[in-house]
Amino acid sequence: MTNRPYVIDEMISAKSIAARIEELSREIHDEFDSTNKLVVVGLLRGSFVFIADLVRELDLPIEVDFLEASSYGDGMESSREVRILKDLRGAIEGRDVLLVEDIVDTGHTLHHVTNLLKSREPARLKTIALLDKPTRREVDMKADWTGFEIPDEFVVGYGIDFAQRNRNLPFIGKVRFT
Ligand code: PRP
Question: Averaged over 24-51, what is the pLDDT?
Answer without folding.
Answer: 95
